[in-house]
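To fix ideas, we quote verbatim one protein's residues and fold tokens.
>
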Amino acid sequence: MHHETHTIRRAQGLSGPSTLPDDLILRSAKRLQALALVYAFVFFMTSFSSTVFFADFSQFESFHDWGFSAISIVVALFVAWVTTRPQLTTRTLMTVGLTFEVVGSFGIAIAQYWAAWVMLFSIVIPAKPSKALIATVTSVSAVPITVALTMKYGGTTIALTPGEFFTGLIFPYLLIILMTHVGARAIYRLGTDVAKAREMGSYRLVERLGKGGMGEVWRAEHQMLARPAAIKLVRPEVLEGGGEHHDIALKRFTQEAQATASMRSPNTIELYDFGVSAEGTFYYVMELLDGFDLETLVQKFGPVPAKRAVHLIRQVCHSLAEAHEHGLIHRDIKPANIYVCRYGRDLDFVKVLDFGLVKHRGEREDDVKLTGPDVVGGTPAYISPEQVTGDKPIDGRTDIYSLGCVAYWLLTGHLVFEGSTALRTMVMHLNEEPVPPSQRTEIEIPAALEQIIMQCLEKDPAHRPQTTEELSMALAACETVPVWDREKAARWWETCQPAPVVAPS
């Protein structure tokens, strides 16, 4: 129990979904301790047994005969002792284990050439594959280095040609490196998969669906319910480093989850649960959608007709209207954050995702810049001029500008501004006038619809539609735009994305 408590305390030295579960770390520490004791015992029996039991000192004629064995035994006993220390984090413990692999390999190389020692460590110490590879390469080099030094300085009669040296002492160990690396990757991946499955409590992670700036999204299954779900995990590298950066990441995650959970619009992604796992992984559980984000939709199938664009944008307006009514500004409206899906019997149903940059109306920009110090919130291709300069209030009209950029993308397949760099793109949003979308596509865009989009893209927020409800009503009033009804949507989905076949239970 005492040792288990130490190991659990060590687990606090790691965080994120890429770490190993506590019980695997506990078993690794015990295996490392056992391996160190076995190592010491074997060296003692092979080097000192005859001396201890038969008082035979004839074999120890020089330090070379007994010194390395004694040092190897002391090192092994020290490692066994270290595994019982509560002060060490798991990172330090694993480093000690890999260091022991290297030091032990040189001790064995001097005594006898045991390749199995290196391969054993890929199972005993489940380290990151990159670190394990470095330790393996360093370890297997012990044999050729020892032989080469012995040939040069040891006064031995060993004489090998370069070809014999390579085939006998280098090539076999290249194979050992390959096999050990494959084994280390398999063991580590198994451990991290187990960790991810356990971290989410009642949910089992099945398949990674995507990866973004803040985290990964996984398809998940509940152990008791038939309802599928999607789980977003905050990327471990976002949280590494601790301190202020960790606090910013935590605040942004919590704000995103709370803002999403407060929404009741059917066009806003539904949040089932969120929290922080025992291992320190930030996550939230949301509904699993069957469809595409608007970025993928256009990339895969091309620009959409005007009637469909109006149908999709009006649903985004419905989600944002509720958010703005509660004083919440999304600030990162873009095609990748808008999902069009098959939702029950509804087709072309829109869900707005990722309220990670949401802010409360009236807050100062400096207080809510949660992407880090001196970083402008939003995505450069869809950012509003006032977000770039930070000299005007950020309100619902900021989202309306971004929504105009989304409509432009849907109808043309082009960004409003395509600068050579992110900074250049933001400057273009600030200073340049956009080309009307009708000039950048072969799709027919009614004049009334184009006028609305260009109005959304006005530099001055006062010249844009003032609310998303006003924008939605203006879009609905475009009489020259045919209606996008369920029949048209059904034909599109049947052709481009047939419904999955559900096997009977």
